[in-house]
Structure prediction request, 191 residues.
Amino acid sequence: MKTLIDRILKDGRCYPGGILKVDKFINHQMDPNLMKAIAIEFIKRYSSTEINKILTIEASGIAPAIVMGLLLDLPVVFAKKKKASTMDNILSTTVFSFTKQREYNVVISKDYLTPQDKVVFIDDFLAYGNAAKGIIDLCQQAGAELVGMGFIIEKTFQHGRKVIEAAGVRCESLAMIESLDDCKIKLKGID
Ligand code: 5GP
Prediction:
């Protein structure tokens, strides 16, 4: 997706350990027009698939997911990283975060992820696929159909796609980063 790739090259910053900072337009300050373009692209890619809900995980997946939900007139549900004391009837899984180097619990209410649901999962980054693995687990526990996953940015050198495809789930990403070596952003198809 050209507008996204141009923006990553202009405003993305490399950090040690294979981390890309996109705080200027995705993770802190957000660009709503770019989010809209991202949502439209995900909608195009999943246009031949029946979906009744968008699934994401807090926090950075919420913006693109909500724009998608708005455009498709579908509900959006996000998996939470902390269980509120008022939450009951929950499904839970454990995810390892490589950016924070620790495990955390992810929960979702059984009321909002059910065997009737056909969901697309949307998130900002695909790295090693740990969050994706947790979401696949939550969908299996709920008996919901996970029709596919969509990531704004995939870092192909961390191989998270393998985890998703091994589970038989479709994976779409809008920009593929092949390397962040020597603090240079190398995108697939761009020299
Ligand atoms: P994974 O679970 O696939 O290893 O990592 C995906 C999650 O970690 C995403 O939800 C995202 O929040 C975070 N993440 C992974 N890599 C990066 C990165 O390079 N930059 C930022 N900002 N977040 C990342």
